[in-house]
Write a sequence for this structure.
């Protein structure tokens, strides 16, 4: 009965879209950016006989029609909801899991060698600083018991073992810490691919333990709720409007005073958080004010002159505020946007004792910054 009702709804929606969509496509204003998908949308391409002859114009028209389809997000949401009702457990490379989790599919990686070569080249080019590597398993491994029975996810621990056994760097294992705490508090967002701030705290604790640093206890922070309506990347691929958002927390040390300098925009801030992002869909960018090629965080309260370079993907954005409590300066480099040679930067800063490379395992094959680590 449920399947029959779903088919009837699909038929009605399809008929209405055929009749009304062309009219609305012409009449409605065109969007240039999808906040839900966090990407630019295709616009009407300019016609030329050469692009038409080569088939390029047709491809661009197809992209334009798909991206500008009237009420596209709502139709995608309806489609996803119906697929879930029919028992489908994988939508757009997202597993529909137990306990309300939407988790990225993880396939056997092809580009581990890029990470290995990048780390080794960086390590060999450093004069005095030492390199440390933390590869973070994601929800697909930590919460593997939530996955559908039909899921065929490659084991991320094999990826971590392959890379860590081949790099000339100290590997900090955070996996066991995450596994042992997964029943205590939420470690990953249900509707996004990032780890939660609590997970970042656990990783910070492990980093400190491996570096002879006394970490701050949770009780020493004021734990605040930034938002309770976060719907991130995995949500956008499923687009099920019926689910509730995640809660983003941040840990604030009332005794910490910082100056944050954004090299690419030549701006200063007294906070490691940008609250304006909480009014947008991309709420995770609240941490460290989204993506910047280079930013410097100076601790104004500390007596030590030790400095740290963090080379990272976005997982580090909610962990760096913890590390800022223990270094005079932290230089945060995002290889996706950084155009200079990282080893040259490190060697030019004599007080830098360590380079901390932090990536999540799931995006090693897709993160363009991996090839730019050196």
């Amino acid at each position: 009965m449920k399947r029959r009702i779903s088919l009837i709804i699909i038929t009605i929606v399809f008929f209405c879209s055929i009749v009304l969509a062309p009219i609305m496509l012409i009449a409605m204003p065109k969007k240039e950016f999808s906040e839900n998908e966090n990407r630019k949308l295709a616009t009407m391409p300019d016609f030329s006989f050469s692009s038409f002859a080569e088939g390029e114009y047709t491809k661009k028209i197809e992209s334009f029609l798909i991206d500008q389809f009237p009420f596209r997000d709502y139709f995608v949401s309806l489609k996803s909801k119906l697929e879930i009702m029919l028992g489908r457990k994988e939508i757009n490379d997202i597993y529909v899991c137990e306990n309300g989790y939407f988790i990225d599919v993880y396939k056997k990686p092809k580009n581990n060698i890029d990470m290995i070569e990048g780390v080794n080249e960086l390590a060999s080019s450093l004069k005095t600083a030492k390199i440390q590597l933390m590869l973070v398993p994601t929800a697909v491994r930590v919460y593997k018991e939530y996955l559908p029975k039909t899921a065929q996810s490659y084991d991320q621990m094999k990826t971590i073992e392959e890379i860590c056994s081949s790099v000339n760097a100290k590997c900090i294992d955070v996996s066991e810490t995450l596994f042992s705490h997964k029943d205590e508090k939420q470690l990953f967002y249900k509707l996004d691919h990032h780890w939660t701030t609590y997970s970042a705290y656990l990783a910070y604790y492990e980093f400190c333990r491996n570096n002879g640093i006394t970490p701050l206890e949770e009780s020493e922070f004021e734990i605040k709720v930034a938002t309770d309506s976060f719907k991130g990347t995995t949500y956008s691929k499923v687009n099920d409007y019926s689910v509730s958002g995640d809660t983003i927390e941040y840990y604030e040390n009332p005794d910490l005073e910082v100056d944050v300098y954004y090299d690419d925009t030549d701006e200063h801030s007294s906070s490691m958080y940008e609250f304006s992002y909480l009014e947008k869909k991309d709420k995770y960018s609240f941490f460290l004010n989204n993506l910047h090629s280079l930013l410097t965080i100076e601790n104004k309260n500390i007596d030590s002159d030790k400095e740290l370079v963090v080379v990272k993907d976005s997982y580090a954005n909610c962990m760096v505020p913890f590390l800022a409590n223990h270094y005079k300066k932290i230089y945060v480099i995002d290889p996706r946007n950084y155009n200079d040679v990282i080893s040259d930067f490190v060697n030019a800063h004599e007080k830098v004792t360590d380079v901390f490379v932090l990536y999540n395992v799931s995006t090693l094959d897709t993160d363009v910054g991996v090839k730019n680590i050196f």
